[in-house]
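Consider the tokenized backbone below.
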């Protein structure tokens, strides 16, 4: 019998979470560096006179990371909710990727081809496995910063188009990981069911474990029987009901 509660809260060791952390932090930095609120600076920065682009991009980046966290924490009692929140995280990061793409186009440039040397170099970055076990908040933040340094040559470039292109590729990698996570979550649901199904199974297990020691065996299937009552009085009914409808008189 599967455990009633799924394991949950292990998001800090996921590569997708590490990348989502990098994406959120670097989106904040990108917006501070390159999105201008001052028309006088429009010649050297992207012009965002009312701050809407800044707000939308930072909120999408935040949603990507936070929904990974919430989905992981909710997985204990709802695999369905975990899958939905993971999908929300993926949708938010997809929205953010669209913003970076438009920022590049607004400069009359094209996103890097996946076959370009630049894109190949970014995509070749390998992520280390998360080694921490106890000091999770501190160690996971340290781990994210260490992985971020592998992308530093692009993220710290003075050209916003270079930074935006690197972010496109990092986000794309996170999206692929989240897609795989959703598939894995779906397979887990197929194998063990959701919380409601396991709760019912546990209830039946507990109920059957508390059967009357004097209960006879069912004449149809051999399972122990339970005392039941109807309008006609008490009788023995199979504990396998409704799959088995065997009865005996009391």
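A designed sequence for it:
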């Amino acid at each position: 019998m599967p455990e009633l509660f799924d394991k949950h809260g292990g998001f800090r060791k996921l590569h997708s979470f590490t990348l989502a952390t990098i994406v959120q932090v670097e989106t904040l930095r990108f917006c501070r560096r390159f999105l201008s609120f001052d028309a006088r600076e429009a010649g050297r920065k992207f012009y965002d006179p009312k701050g809407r682009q800044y707000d939308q991009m930072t909120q999408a980046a935040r949603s990507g990371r936070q929904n990974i966290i919430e989905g992981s924490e909710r997985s204990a009692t709802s695999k369905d909710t975990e899958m939905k929140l993971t999908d929300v995280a993926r949708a938010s990061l997809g929205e953010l990727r669209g913003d970076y793409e438009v920022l590049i186009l607004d400069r009359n440039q094209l996103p890097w081809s996946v076959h370009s040397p630049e894109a190949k170099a970014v995509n070749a970055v390998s992520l280390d496995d998360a080694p921490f076990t106890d000091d999770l908040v501190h160690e996971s933040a340290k781990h994210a910063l260490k992985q971020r340094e592998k992308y530093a040559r692009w993220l710290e470039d003075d050209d916003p188009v270079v930074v935006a292109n690197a972010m496109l590729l990092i986000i794309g990698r996170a999206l692929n990981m989240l897609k795989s996570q959703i598939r894995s979550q779906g397979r887990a649901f197929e194998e063990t069911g959701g919380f409601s199904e396991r709760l019912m199974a546990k209830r039946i297990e507990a109920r059957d474990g508390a059967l009357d020691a004097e209960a006879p065996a069912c004449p149809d299937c051999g399972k122990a029987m339970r005392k039941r009552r109807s309008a006609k009085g008490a009788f023995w009914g199979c504990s396998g009901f409704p799959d088995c409808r065997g009865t005996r008189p009391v």
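Strands lie at 35-36, 46-47, 225-230, 233-238, 247-249.
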